[in-house]
Amino acid sequence: MTSRGRVRTSSNSLDPNEDPVSGLERVFSNSNLEQVARQRRRQEEQLLFSRQLAESDRTDSHEALSARYESLNYEVSENRLYRDAEKKPSHQLTLWRISRNRWFVCFLIGVFTGLVAAFIDIMVHYSKDVKFSWILKYLISKCSEEQRGTTAGCMWTVMIAWIGYNCVLVTIAAVLVIFVAPIAGGSGIPQIKCYLNGIAIPEVRSALNHFISIVVKVVRLKTLVSKAIGVACSVGGGLCAGKEGPMIHSGAAVGAGVSQGKSYSLGIDFGLFKEFRNDRERRDFVSAGAAAGVAAAFGAPIGGVLFSLEEGASFWNQNLTWRMFFSAMISSFTVNLILSWFNGKSGWLSWTGLANFGVFENKDYNIWEIPLFLLIGVIGGCLGALFNYLNTRLTEFRKKYVSSKFGRLFECLLVAAISGFLAFLTIFAIDDCQPIGANPTATSTQINQMWCKKGEYSAVASLFFQNPEESVKSLFHSPINSFGVTTLIIFGIEYFFLTLWTFGISVPSGVFIPAILTGAAWGRLFGIFVERLFPSVTGIDPGKYALAGAAAQLGGVVRMTISLTAIIMEATKDITFGLPIMLVLMVTKWVGDMFNEGLYDSHIDLAEVPILGWNPPKMSRNILADRVMRKDVVALERRERVSRIVEILRSTLHHGFPVVDRIEESPYESLPDYGRLKGYILRSQLFKLLENRIFEEEESSSAVLPNDFYECQDDDDQMKSLADLGLTQYDESCWLDIEPYMHPHPHRVPLNTSLPFIFRLFRGLGLRYLFVVNDDNHLRGVITRKDVARFRERRRNHEYHVDELYISES
C-alpha cells in the first residue's frame, strides 16, 4: 500500500525481505483470525441490538428516535478568517457595535412581543362581545319567559347559533395550522424547548423522493402570524385553550425574526444584524423572546426569565440573563400601555398582561393549614400524572388513526361542537341560579341570566360563558356561597376531560389557563369542604384553596416549580402566598414524577426528538465511545478536487465533514483508513466556497480569500442545490484548499471515553459533532446528538436500566 511515494506495511501485507512461503502463511493466518474475530463481533452486536430492541418493544410503543432531526451548530468555527478578523483596525468598533445591537434587538423583541400579545387580547375581546352581546343575550332576549329552561325551539336556536359561531372561529384556527403552518399547532413550548436544547425542528419535504430539504420553521414570520390569529380564534371559539402558553412560542418567533434582519417567509432581506445570523446568537434571542412572551402573558417579567432558564434555555450566562430580563420588562410595559389605553385607562401601567387574576383581600393563613396545602399538592400530582397519561395515549391514537388533513379538521370541529353542547347541557341540567347581588365581585359580563328567572343569574353560566381568565378570577375571589358543590364537581370533571381532548388537536392552544381553571374548581371545592369540616374556625377562604389547587393542577401537568411560583406571585401581585405555593408545587412535582414525565417532555418523546436531559443515564459508565460512535464517516483531505467534493455533497446528507491528513484504503474493513484529524468543515461552508469559486487551478497555487468573513459561516438559509451553482467541467477539475476555512481544533475523545463524559460534553458545550480518535489521533468515528440520545434511562422493577433506542428513518 503506497501513499505519496511511501511504502506502508502491516501484519496483513508481505514484507519484501521475508521468505514468500512463510509470508503467505502468516498473512493467511492473520487474515483468517481477524475475519473470524470480525464476524464474531458483528454477531454479538446484532444479538445485543435485537435483544434490546425486543425489550424496548415490550416496554413502550414509541421507543425510537427520528432521523429527520438535526442539531443546531453552536460552536464557533475558529478558522483562519476568524483569527484574521481580530487583526483588522475596525475590530474594536465592530465589538462595540455588536454589543449595542444586542441590546437594541432585545428592546425590539420586547416591543413586538407586547404588540402581538395586545393584538391577541383585543381580538379575543371583540370575539367575546360578538358571542355574549350579539348572539347569547340578544337571542335569549327573544325567547319568552315560558320558553326559557325548556326544550323549546327558541332555546335550540340559541345553542345552534352559539355552536355555529364557535365552529367558524375554530375552522379558521385549524386551517391556519393544517394548511399554512403546521408547526404553529399546540402551545409550541415543546418545540421551543427542543430548539433551545440544540435541535432544529424541521419540516421535511421531498421532491420526487430524491431530494430532501430541511428548513427550520419553528421561528418564522408565517408561524408567528398563524399562531397569533389561530390562538385568538381558538380561545374565541370556546375551546378549553389558553392564549398564554402560545405567547411563549410567539415571543420566541419574534426573537428569531427580529434578530435576523430579514424575513424568510416574505423573502425580504433588510441587510440588518448580519452578525447575528448564526445558530448561537439566534438561540440567545429566542431565549429572550420566550421570556418576553411569559412577561406579556402574565405580567411576570421575573417569572419569564425564570421560565426561560428552567424550562427552555440549555445554555446561558450572566449577560444573557440581564438581556432576557430587559426584553421581559419592555414586553410587559408595552402590553400594559396598549391594554390600558384600549380599556379607557391610558397610562395605567399596573395591568397584569393577558391574564388578570385579581388581588386577594384575605391574605391570612395559619400553620395548621400547611398540611392541607401539602394534601392539595398530592392531589395535584396525581391528577397531573393522570392527565399526562391519558393525553399521551390520546396523542398516540391520533398519530395512528387521525393523520389525514381533513380528519384533523373534522376532529377540531367535533371538539368545538361538543364543548359548546356540553356547556348548554350542563346549564340546563344544573339548577344553580343565584340572586343578583349575591356575588358583589361579579361584573356585568359575569352575570348571565340564561334559564334563570328575572333577578337571578346562572352561576354555571358564569364559568362556561366567559373567557377562561375571568372564570379563574371568579373562582379566586367570589364569596363562599357563590358556587354550589355540584356545580364545581361537574364543571371540574367536564373541563378536565375537555382540556385533555383539546390539547393536541390541530389548533394553536395552551394548557396553562385550562389547567389553572380546572385546579381552581377542585381547589375551591376543597376549601368548601374544609370550611364545613371546621365550621367554628374563622378566616377560611375558599379562594386561597382555589389558588393552591390551580398551582397544583398546572404544576402536576407541566412539572414547573421555581418559575411557576414566580409567575403566580407576579400575576396575583402578592408574595404572601409564596410559601404555600412553593410547597404545593414541590410536592406536586415529587408525586407526579413517581408516575410519568411532564406533559411537554411526554410530547417530545412521542415526536421522537433526540433531546438531551440535564443528566446522563444512570448505569451507563461502561458504555464507551467505540459503542456510541458511528464508523461510516466521510472525511476530506486538506486539499481536494472540486469534483470529489461535489460527488460527496451529492451522495450524502451529512452536515459536516472531518478533515484528515490522509485517506487510504483499509486492509481490514470496507471503510477507508483515515489519518490524523486536522479539523472539520460544515456542509454549508463548502457550498459557500463552491458558490464563490474559491478554487486553485493547480495543487500548488493559492486562491484569493473572500473579503467577507461571514460568507463562510454556517446559517440555516436553505442552501442552493448543486445544479444552481452552475459548476462547469473546468471548475470540477480545480482544487479547493479547505485548510483556511476549516475549524482547526474540533472536540475529540479517545475510544475508551464513557457515555456520561460524552453526554456532559454535548449538554454543556452544545456540540453538534464529537470525533473519536485512537491513541495516534487517527480518526475512527463520529458521535452526533442522536448517537448520544438513543441511550435512555428507564426504571423497571425498582432498578435502573439503559435502553438503546433505534433510529427511525420515517
Can you give a write-up of this model?
A hairpin with a 2-residue loop joins strand 1 and strand 2. Helix 3 (91-141) packs antiparallel against helix 7, helix 7 packs antiparallel against helix 8 (279-298) and helix 15 runs antiparallel to helix 16 (512-533). The protein has a 3-stranded mixed β-sheet. A 3-stranded mixed β-sheet has the order 19-20-21. A two-stranded antiparallel ribbon has the order 1-2. Mean pLDDT is 82; it is low at 1-18, 20-34, 51-62, 203-218 and 707-711. The protein has 810 residues and is mainly alpha-helical. The protein starts with a strand and ends with a strand. The chain contains 27 helices and 24 strands. The chain folds into 4 domains: 30-62; 80-343, Orthogonal Bundle (Clc chloride channel); 372-404 and 468-601, Clc chloride channel (Orthogonal Bundle), CATH 1.10.3080.10; 617-808, Roll (CBS-domain), CATH 3.10.580.
